[in-house]
Design goal:
43% of the residues lie in helices and 16% in strands. It has 314 residues and is α/β, with parallel strands linked by helices. Bound molecules: NADP nicotinamide-adenine-dinucleotide phosphate. NADP nicotinamide-adenine-dinucleotide phosphate binds next to strand 4 and strand 6.
Length: 314
Amino acid sequence: MDIKDKKILVTGGHGFLGKPLLKRLWLEEPLDIIAPRSSEYDLTKENDVKKLLEKNKPDIVIHAAGRVGGIEYNRKNPATAYYENVMMGTLMVHYSHIYKVEKFVGIGSVCAYPKIVPIPTKEECLWDGYPEETNGPYGVAKKMMGVQIEAYRKQYKFDGVYLLQVNLYGPNDHFNDKDSHVIGAMIYKFYNANKNNDKKVVLWGDGSPTREFLYVDDATRAIVLATKNLETSEPINIGSGEEISIKQLAEIISKEIGYEGEIVWDRTKPNGQPRRLFDSTKAEKLMGFKAQTKFKDGIKKTIEWYNKKCDENE
Ligand SMILES: NC(=O)c1ccc[n+]([C@@H]2O[C@H](COP(=O)([O-])OP(=O)(O)OC[C@H]3O[C@@H](n4cnc5c(N)ncnc54)[C@H](OP(=O)(O)O)[C@@H]3O)[C@@H](O)[C@H]2O)c1
């Protein structure tokens, strides 16, 4: 599909993923991009979703809004994570169908996968078990959108696609120790320890789990490629192909920040899913996507961005 001269609606367009996605989409010379805030249209509310679609009549919808957080957020807010994500997904797909959207791109998450999966994980494993408990309600809510997209394609010939993205990182991520994902939380902790001359940083779990991280610019490239080239509603994995343990991650980030104190692992806190690494060969075959940013380069850029932002705020 040629997206030049199309009217594109991006939900979540002011979030961590949404911001660079808007930038990349403008390069494709669309007719217009609409990116409303949640204060204008609350996508968990049917009337708001209906109004948004009715008023703007977009050709393309990229649904990148979500109620998102790390382990701690999902553990404390499982009901919110379930309800808001399932409502947004359900309403956005349904009203995109009603208002005859030509292409719908749904953004799913690695958290939809069962806790224990073969590594590297292929899309066929998606239904082999319940997700890791702390992320379960969030992961299942995001998985429902994939089911709905497939059903609407079968019954209504709705052209929807569904991407499962691994953990993202990069500039504009959330950096704190309350609702950040692991990279944002670690950068925040090591940066502050360095600044305050603390001799000890405490991290969750035992450091053994592995994760796959995708630089946000690779994620936005994948979304644009899927919008243009993907013609199936089958779930498609979007990963970087690099598996890194949390312990290695802590070493890389602390070194990059220049923190030289002790790293203490709090084993009373959950580890989360034991291993994560996608088989992303389908994405390469069906939509021409392969990640380009090596982790060591992406993390360097992210920390440089964070240092600069902190300097500016001081
Ligand atoms: N970050 C990751 O590692 C990761 C990994 C895999 C998949 N994903 C998926 O990628 C998408 C974007 O995540 P992100 O990390 O960019 O999250 P984010 O920074 O928290 O941004 C989420 C966006 O969703 C919007 N939103 C939340 N609730 C809304 C509501 N009720 N109505 C309308 N808009 C609402 C927010 O809009 P306002 O700013 O206007 O409030 C915000 O712009 C999500 O679907 C997430 O599941 C993220």
